[in-house]
Amino acid sequence: MLASLWRARRRGSCLDALPRAGRSCARLAGVAFALALAVSPGVAFAQAEALLDEGKSLMKKGKVAEACPKLEESYRLSPRSATLLALAMCHEKQGKVATAWSEYIDLGAAARKEGNKRLEADAKARGAKLELSLPRLTLSVPRAAAIEGLEVMLDGAPVDGALWGQARPIDPGQHKVRASAPGRKPWEHSVTIKRGERKTVAVPALAKDASAAAQPAPAAEAPAPAAASAAPEKGSAGSGDGAAGPGKGAAGPGKGAAAAEAGKGAAAPGKGAAGPGKGAAAPGKAAAGPETDAPPAAPAAAEEPEPSAGSSPRHTGSFVIQAGVTGGALIGLMDSGSFGDLSAYSYSYNIPEGELIAPCDDEVCHASFDPAIGPFAGGEAFIGFALSEDLHLGARVLGGYRFGGGYLVVGGPSISMRFGRVWLGLSGLVGPVGQEAKVTGIKGEIPSEVVHLNYGRSEAAVNAREGSLPESALVETLAFGGSVDVSLVLADLPSAGWTSGALLLSVSPTVMKGLDGWVFAAPASLGYRFY
After folding, report:
1. How far apart are CA 59 and CA 66, in angstroms?
2. How buried is 471 (Cβ within 10 angstroms: 0-12 exposed, 13-18 middle, 19+ buried)?
3. What tens digit of pLDDT does each residue of 27-71 get?
4. Which residues of 48-77 are buried (b: 16+ CB within 10 A; e: fewer)?
């Protein structure tokens, strides 16, 4: 048996030895195959470990451009959570925040399957932190540009039509957008996007390609001339020069194929238009190539109007509506005012004839109050127009109820500008404000002509009986002022539908001057702005 195997080895085939060596060679081959299967994963794992260690070492030295490819190869050889975490951290340091964010999401899913809750929570936290600074690019395809066969590509990869008009996370840097369609000139555009930016690229209507329209369409096979019907059957099976040879047609352009000599085709090699296997073999028929000399007239296509390029479906030229719920603190520093009917009170002051007891009314008497501070809850709204993607102009309304008594209802013109993920706005506000505050007293006005008779005082305290003053009262005033609005985009959700917009978390410090004092508000709101 060993001699048979040796002879088989010298001949280079184990199969020759099988009749003599029986199944021994097959067993040896099976053992070798099993050993190969057992060793290969171990080798791949060892290579992955070495690449992982090398990648981590390069990362510590700050050489992320060299570290990331090694970590990618390590993960390809041995996909493990520890390697994916190192790869995501490397891409994050490299500035590829969208790639790292996607890898953190995959890492969280893998950790959840493994039951590693600590790693899952870490991956979620890292991904959430990156999500706030993700650049997002929207590829807008207006209806006028969405012709049949349109293909939109981003950095060489096709973008599915369902994703047109959707903001997609993308790594910072320069990217190339390309659009093409049959019979149209291709269009290309380069866009540079920074971390946290939101940009929209509108694909224009592609111009017609006159050179593509001028190319002739292939002609259908035409009946051969009657003279060709007399050709013998072996006309297509000659000594390599016939029409049946691969790549050789049976006829030159615009000519019929009549095989007059046995074994030879009618056309010179290489000039025929027919593909392999097409010839002038069948009696009574001749094979014809495309009639390029006299192409048939193509049916005239209906003229399409040249559509104009559209604009972004998200922002520019559209109405903007924002609505949200608000909560915060309302501080009233209105130290004087009225709290209703004061005619039940009176006060006295000196006149030349003696002492005068004068009745109170809203014209000559006013109450004094302590400052009032309390929480309030309500809502806010913005209605305006998008002058551009980053500039909205309109009006803002803020209203709410103060717990413990009071209210705030103000509104006015507003402007908002976007800087990455942050909207910064300014609003001018006017409206009524009320506060429930402790009454500290009531005073009446002394006429200026008798001030000298009252020790120079211009006011006198009301003669109120003990306990007759209310403990607190609602004081109201008309206030004027403004607010600074700072909004953080929690989620940007652009689309071609009416739900296109963004979820915003806003704070709006507000300062207003009342007719009798000041009002300060510190509202925070969670709202949705429809673009």
Report:
1. 8
2. exposed
3. 555 545 544 444 456 677 888 888 888 888 898 888 889 999 989
4. beebbebbbebbeeeebeebbebbbbbbeb
Whole-angstrom CA distances from 531 to 134, 146, 204, 494, 528 are: 20, 22, 21, 8, 10
Listing DSSP states for 229-258 in one string gives GG--GGGGSSSS-STTSTT--SS-TT----
| 335 confidence band (pLDDT: 50, 70, 90) | confident
Q: How many Å apart are CA 510 and CA 187, to the nearest integer? A: 49
User: 């959430």: which residue's tokens?
Assistant: 128
pLDDT at 213: 55
Half-sphere exposure of 512 (CA within 13 A, CB side): 33
Question: What pLDDT is attached to residue 237?
Answer: 34
Quick check: 512 and 479 in contact, CB under 8 A?
A: yes
Beta bridge partners of 322: 382, 529
Helix (H) or strand (E) holding 349: strand 346-351
pLDDT (0 to 100) of residue 499: 76
Phi-psi region of 270 (alpha: psi -120 to 50; beta: other; left: phi over 0): left
Query: Which H or E run contains 381?
Result: strand 372-388
Residue 452, SS3?
Answer: helix
Q: Is residue 403's pLDDT more than 50?
A: yes
Neighbours of 191 (CB within 10 A): 16
Look at residue 254 in the predicted model and tell me its pLDDT.
39
What distance, in Å, lies between the first and last C-alpha atoms of the chain?
Answer: 84
**CB-based contact 265:278 (threshold 8 Å):** no
**Mean pLDDT lowest among 16-30, 41-55, 86-100, 406-420:** 16-30
Say whether 263 sits in a helix, a strand or coil.
coil
Q: Regarding predicted confidence, which is higher, 351 or 216?
A: 351
Residues 458, 451 contacting (CB under 8 angstroms) = yes
Identity of the highest mean pLDDT range in 296-300, 330-334, 471-475, 480-484: 480-484
- Sequence length of the chain is 531
Q: How far is residue 74's CA from residue 70's CA, in Å, rounded to a whole number? A: 6
Q: Which residues contact 14 (CB under 8 A, 6 or more apart)?
A: 5, 8, 25, 26, 29
Tokens describing residue 106: 């995959």
445-471, pLDDT tens digit by residue? 989 998 988 888 889 888 766 557 788
- Bridge partners (DSSP) of residue 351 are 354
Residue with tokens 């992982």: 52
Contacts of 165 (CB under 8 A, 6+ apart): 138, 139, 140, 141, 313, 314, 494, 495, 496
> Which residues, in sequence order, are bridge partners of residue 372?
332
Average pLDDT, whole number, for the chain? 75
> Would the pLDDT of 23 be above 90?
no
